[in-house]
Write a structure and sequence with these properties.
197 residues, alpha+beta, mRNA Triphosphatase Cet1, Chain A, 11 strands, 5 helices
Length: 197
């Protein structure tokens, strides 16, 4: 199991071109084509995953099923993002569409949170970059949609994530980015837009 270290930046939409120019001046490389990402997030009836994330409690989890709408793959990924005192890591398992439909109707049982049910869809466009040993993603066109409801809300923020397995490498890279560091969760942001929690 390898722990990830994440550093998130908030970039205003009007500054994104300036930011990308800054990246490529630092010899950042594009490692994958831009693609659309969609995730269905789960939580229990008390929204304990949301509340634990807002409070910054550990251990905590987020459970989602992630897929790529334009992909030809017949598989989706069920993922658990776990934050512990030791660090963050992700457990991922492939499922097919039949299993996806079953999970949407019956929910997912988690040993920490009990039965968890579909909550919101999060969709966005992601760019994939690399600088030194760190991976950089740029997410924009973020939209939230309630499960079993047509109501959709947009997030105009652009979120950049810098991920590395090495703290010293991340600290070195952080010094190269003169932009605002934030705590940001798409799931929590989406929940806050729809529910009074």
């Amino acid at each position: 199991m390898s722990f990830r270290i994440e550093y998130k930046l908030f970039i205003k939409k009007e500054n994104i071109y300036q930011f990308k120019n800054y990246l490529f001046r630092k010899n950042t490389k594009r490692i994958f084509k831009t693609r659309n990402v969609e995730s269905l997030y789960f939580d229990n009836k008390n929204k304990d995953m949301y509340n634990d994330s807002i409070e910054g409690l550990t251990p905590r989890k987020k459970i989602r099923i992630r897929y790529y709408p334009k992909s030809t793959s017949k598989y989706l990924n069920i993922e658990k993002k776990i934050s512990s005192v030791e660090g963050r890591f992700k457990i991922s398992k492939k499922i097919d569409n039949d299993e996806f439909e079953k999970i949407k109707s019956r929910g997912i049982y988690d040993n920490q949170y009990g039965w968890c049910y579909p909550s919101i869809f999060v969709t966005y466009k992601r760019e994939y970059l690399k600088l030194d040993d760190a991976r950089i993603t740029i997410d924009n066109s973020i939209h939230y949609k309630r499960f079993n409801n047509s109501l959709t809300k947009e997030d105009k923020d652009i979120i950049v994530e810098i991920k590395s397995n090495f703290l010293d490498q991340l600290e070195k890279i952080k010094k190269k980015f003169p932009f605002q560091n934030i705590r940001f969760s798409k799931y929590c942001n989406g929940i806050a837009k729809f529910f009074s929690v």
